[in-house]
Amino acid sequence: MKIQQKHSGSQAMTGHRDETVGRPPLRSHEGFSKARRRARAVAVGLAGAALLTLSGCTDAVQRGWFPADSVGATNHTERISDLWRGSWIAALIVGAIVWGLVIWCMIAYRRRKGETGVPAQIRYHLPLEVMYTVIPVMMIGVLFGYTARDQREILDTSQTPDVTIGVVGKQWSWDFNYKDADVYESGVMGQLDGQEGAEAALPTLYLPVNQRVQFDLTARDVIHSFWVPAFLMKMDMIPGIENKFQVIPTAEGDFKGKCAELCGEYHSEMLFNVKVVSQAEFDQHMADLEARGQTGQLGDDLSRSKMAPSDSEAEEAGNSDALKTSAESTTAEVK
């Protein structure tokens, strides 16, 4: 009784109340070990649930929401889609684990009714801090490694192509130079007015099935981008620079192509058709172009930089126009 009175007296003297008196004890190290085991169980459960959910996805989800006609369209589409899906699966698993641990900590370590004071503080947990640094770096390294491997294969142009096609972007259409057959096809901008048959007037790129095709890409005026969505591949077209890539179309059919770089007022109508056909049909199309007189190649002389007058020529033309106007004015005054 005296001890209790003395304790009460010390509280009165200091003006502070001992917050540890009468509250439930905080968790022991054994409690933390149990918490860690529960955290691991939650993480494993979330990962299993994510895998189970992904295994029951629709066809659109399983192909990563890529176009349906991209499946088996070229020799690269499977590689590209595998990289895309793998990246998303890894990201979803990591996200599920992180959010699961966050939510679990919010629930498991919430303040209980009747608890007061500050929980046990843990500082400078070096192994945990090293783990937080090493694991993300390893994840980024793995993702970079797979990306670099696939990019090296997709952009490899060391093999001799069966067909070489020069594709030239221009505002707002396309020119196709079939270099091996020495024929060309020049397109005009599409007029998409909602009428049937409008797409048939677009320029059409012919490709032989199961043949290695090399695209030599450039532009006449501004930067464009060659994109066939079903091929899961696009590449910039820059004036004065020739970019290249190779592809083997593996399925016959009709596909759509478009410019993927904002290039001016009618960018949305810079479209073209793609026909992947048999070798016999491809050869026949080359013969048809030759019969129409579309022989030779459309060169850089049609580029805007070559067709536009130089500064000196423009200045001379301006001076000539000024002299002509002055002479006409003088003649009119004399009359």
Automatic annotation (TrEMBL):
Region (Disordered): 1-33, 293-335
Protein location: Membrane
Residue stretches spanning the membrane: 41-61, 88-109, 130-148
EC number: 7.1.1.9
Biased composition (Polar residues): 1-13, 322-335
Example of a GO MF term: oxidoreductase activity
Domain Cytochrome oxidase subunit II copper A binding span(s) in chain numbering: 160-288
PROSITE patterns, A to Z: COX2, COX2_CUA
Listed CDD domains: CuRO_HCO_II_like_5
Reactions the enzyme catalyzes: 4 Fe(II)-[cytochrome c] + O2 + 8 H(+)(in) = 4 Fe(III)-[cytochrome c] + 2 H2O + 4 H(+)(out)
Keywords: Copper, Electron transport, Membrane, Metal-binding, Respiratory chain, Translocase, Transmembrane, Transmembrane helix, Transport
Keyword Electron transport: yes
PANTHER family linked to this entry: CYTOCHROME C OXIDASE SUBUNIT 2, CYTOCHROME C OXIDASE, SUBUNIT II
Name the UniProt record assigns to this protein: cytochrome-c oxidase
